[in-house]
Amino acid sequence: LIEVFAMIARKQVDLPLNLFINSFTLSMVTVIAFLIDLEKFSYIGYLGIGLVSIGSCVFSQSGQNEPSGTAGGVILLLVTLVIKGLLPNFLIQSFFAHGTAIQELILNTSGLHATWSFSIALITGELGKAARELPNGTPLLAIVIGLLGYINSTVWFLSLKHFGSVNTEILHTLRMMLYVMATYPPIDARYGVGGMIAAGGLTLVATSKHLRNPDPPSPEQVRAVLKLQALMRGRKARETYSRQKEAVERLQAFFRGRKARFQAEKMRQEKAAANAFTLD
Questions:
Q1: Measuring CA to CA, how many Å separate 125 from each of 62, 108, 246?
Q2: How many angstroms separate the CA atoms of 181 and 144, rounded?
Q3: Which residues contact 202 (CB under 8 A, 6 or more apart)?
Q4: pLDDT in tens, 21-45
């Protein structure tokens, strides 16, 4: 969906506005991670994340014309922004929590992405146009691009698994800033302003408290914990039964002693009454 919406939006929104909206992907990822209780920062950390987003926004407008686009294109980009915020958090909770291997995720997502892209290009007629415009050396170029894409996906999934969705998106934001600088090389004052704001935000994030849910336990660890819990429940049940049995025995002994005393007192009174009758 991200690719489809982005492809349609590019025809309705120019690059400056596209980069401007995408600059807030980090903020969206952070908000969703907070709402689903996946990652939390201190107030200083959230301030730093906001500054990184603002710095990226300023940085992305360097050397650009004024942003422009249609309302439909903006809506598509906003929907894409929400999906980008959901995706990394969804992967952590739904796949890494169940021990899914990174290679399996790369294989499945790459296959789905290739099938989806091929279908869209075929439906829109872009496939034939792309085939006619293929440059010389395309097979070698495809291999290089595929290898770089595999490396990029591996680094992204590893970062997502070990550092969390927010830190991964911070790296992605910095990569986007480098892309803007490489694409629009003329030095602009907004490069410096955006870069300093983003650097200040990164400093705050690095010095803040970051609470992240630990890596999900392995199946062996889950089974060991369940076995230990069952053992503790059985031991607790035996201890509870033993205490209850001891309390019942004490209560029975108390009543037996009380009954014996009552009977002894009754016999004493009967004996005293018999002696009194004999004297009379």
A1: 34, 26, 84
A2: 23
A3: 48, 52, 170
A4: 888 888 888 888 888 877 888 888 8
